[in-house]
Design a protein that fits this description.
The chain is built from 14 helices and 12 strands. It is α/β, with parallel strands linked by helices. The strands form 2 sheets. It has a 6-stranded parallel β-sheet, with helices on both faces. Strands 9-8-7-10-11-12 form a 6-stranded parallel β-sheet, with helices on both faces. The N and C termini lie far apart (51 Å).
Length: 338
């Protein structure tokens, strides 16, 4: 289906740093197809900074969960008279916002109980695929077939100054800087602390490296525990906002992560990634066919179970420090660092 006379577009992806980052290729493709149109993005505060500085957007609209604020938001959206709304979240709230928007074209996926909200309903592919490609299926449905773009995260100059000031007293010239993001909001996605500890010490001892441990809200105690178990001294990142975090990650030669937000930031700023997967599907979250972004996972039968918590954690226990070290070395070889 080809759509016409598009002068205002609203993209809805309310939350999660990774999910919003993986929507940025959609923004660029829409700008390429509709260079003169107004393109806005509806998002919650937690992921707002993912979008600031994006050159393909006109406006970023904040969504608040308050019922009365939602009423105001729907009135504002109706007043804008958007030609096209694309709902990439597809939860009840985003579906109702789309339904009441009065947009000429309302695009969303065929999630159960949501299809009423859309007059262009996208059939979901049953085969696992990279989430960017999944989102681009919505554009293909409306006649936009441009190739996949890279995810985008803008790092402002003040965040780079913060990075240089923060790391200046720690970095040793000619040493490799390896970042580790050892946490996740889902417990089942977290590789073992003792494994991170062993790996960090090996990388420092064997490969002329320094290791920086990244943390977010509520996670500092966890990285401090890893640091306390190490025989070497890692760098513990300072408190950061998202832009400052991205600037620090941009300085790393490799990022070792669980399936989490910092991994997607690393991909967006061009830092090679090694991601340890267990309950989540690497085909969904890892860029395909890119040598600099490697998924490491075990071969247990329950891989990709999507559990949020797990008693046995076999998928994580079976990914050993040896396995991860070998992949890190290959990434460093590609970069000419070893």
């Amino acid at each position: 289906m080809e759509i016409r006379n598009i002068n205002k577009i609203l993209i809805i992806q309310l939350r999660r740093i990774g999910d919003v980052l993986l929507t940025t290729p959609v923004i660029e493709s829409l700008r390429e197809r509709f260079p003169e149109s107004q393109i806005d993005f509806l998002v919650e505060r937690s992921a707002y900074d993912v979008l600031t500085g994006n050159p393909y957007l006109n406006n970023i609209i904040l969504s608040n969960k308050s019922f009365f604020e939602q009423i105001k938001l729907i009135k504002r959206i109706r007043k804008e008279r958007y030609s096209l709304i694309l709902d990439f979240l597809g939860n009840p709230r985003s579906a109702w916002i789309t339904f009441f928007s009065a947009a000429r074209y309302r695009v969303g996926f065929d999630f159960p109980g949501r299809k009423f909200a859309y007059n262009i309903c996208v059939k979901r592919d049953t085969e696992p695929k990279y989430l960017v490609d999944f989102k681009l299926d919505a554009l293909r449905t409306i006649g936009i077939t441009s190739p996949r773009k890279k995810t985008f995260f803008h790092i402002p100059d003040d965040a780079k100054v913060f990075r240089n000031d923060s790391l200046g007293k720690y970095l040793i010239e000619d040493k490799i800087l390896i970042g580790m993001a050892p946490n996740s909001r889902r417990k089942a996605r977290i590789w073992l602390k003792e494994y991170f500890t062993q790996l960090a010490d090996r990388l420092i001892d064997k490969y002329n490296s320094q290791v920086i441990l990244f943390w977010g809200p509520g996670e500092k105690e966890s990285v401090e525990e890893i640091a306390s178990l190490m025989k070497n001294n890692p760098i513990i990142s300072p408190p950061t906002d998202l832009k400052q975090l991205a600037a620090l990650i941009d300085r790393c030669d490799v990022m070792i992560t669980n399936d989490n937000g910092p991994k997607h930031i690393a991909v967006s700023v061009g830092t090679p990634t090694l991601t340890i997967y267990g309950p989540t599907n690497s085909k969904t979250w890892n860029p395909p066919d890119e040598a600099f972004h490697v998924a490491v996972e075990s071969d247990v039968d329950c891989l990709g179970c999507n559990k949020q918590e797990c008693e046995t954690m076999e998928c994580m226990k079976n990914v050993t420090p040896d396995m991860v070290e070998n992949v890190v070395v290959e990434l460093l070889k590609i970069k000419g660092k070893v």
